[in-house]
Amino acid sequence: MKVFLLEDDDAIGMGLKYSLEKEGYEVTHVTTVADAKKAWKKNEYDISILDINLPDGSGYDICKYMKESEDIPVIFLTAADAEVNVVMGLELGADDYICKPFRVNELMARIKSVLRRAGRGEDKGSADSSANIERIGNLSIYTNEAKVTIKDEESKKEETIELTALEYRLLLTFANNRGVVLTRNQLLSDMWDISGDFVNDNTLTVYIKRLRDKIEKDPSDPKIIKTVRGMGYIVDK
């Protein structure tokens, strides 16, 4: 597994590189936006870890740059835990977000989770996916492959839906709780694997909208993920 690491703090960068390599990852470490653009190669890496505040720009700039050519999983690192930074990172397609200071073990767990959800884990394709399929209406969720397809009502053909790791996780949470109203706090807690005190409701709103845009025939009148006013959301199919 190859990791692209953009971190301008030498101590943090060197420590992360050492820890990642100790876990068996190959790491390319750069410290500036300019160096990141020079070092980045399409389809070369499995995941990117990007610091946000950089001397010559922002990790957001590199995220946009990468996403233009490849839907690579991205985890943002930052010392700023402001709501606007969280939401902006997610809107750019980030799969996870962790604030400094953080524990290395926590980051390692996040990396493995993101890789697994993105279908880039070491064990992908090793199991029989036919035995693990969740269906919601015309959606099929292949849990062993972390893949989602939608069946066209006219042609009856299935097309793969490209979801980020957190979008997939959110959809899987709904699939595993059909017929149950899930509150916003329950959803946020499940998405982040921690209490998520720094994650505001706006974060969830971003992901609900993005997910509906991808799976609903008419996102303005959702038939799969329904809003239960004053309570949360429900999938009852």
Q: What share of residues is helical?
A: 25-40%
Q: Work out the helix count.
A: 8
| Rg, alpha carbons | 18 Å
Large-scale geometry: elongated
Number of E-type strands? 13
Overall pLDDT confidence? 82
- Unreliably modeled segments: 123-131, 193-199
Please tell me the CATH architecture of the largest domain by its name.
3-Layer(aba) Sandwich
CATH superfamily descriptor of the largest domain:
Response regulator
* Class based on secondary structure composition and strand pairing: alpha/beta
Please tell me the total number of domains.
2
In CATH terms, what is the fold-level topology of the largest domain? Rossmann fold
Cα(first) to Cα(last) distance is: 38 Å
The helix/strand order is EHEHEEEHEHEHEEEEHHHEE
State the name of the first-level CATH class of the largest domain. Alpha Beta
Largest sheet: 5 strands, parallel
Short précis:
The protein is an alpha/beta fold and 237 residues long.
Structure report:
With 237 residues, this protein is of the alpha/beta class. It folds into 2 domains: 2-117, 3-Layer(aba) Sandwich (Rossmann fold); 129-234, Winged helix-like DNA-binding domain superfamily/Winged helix DNA-binding domain (Arc Repressor Mutant, subunit A), CATH 1.10.10. Helices cover 37% and strands 22% of the residues. It has 8 helices and 13 strands. The strands form 4 sheets. A 5-stranded parallel beta sheet has the order 2-1-3-6-7, sandwiched between helices. Strands 8-9-10-11 form a 4-stranded antiparallel beta sheet, covered by helices on one side. β4 (53-54) and β5 form a beta hairpin. α4 packs parallel to α8. The protein starts with a strand and ends with a strand. The model is unreliable at 123-131 and 193-199 (pLDDT under 50).
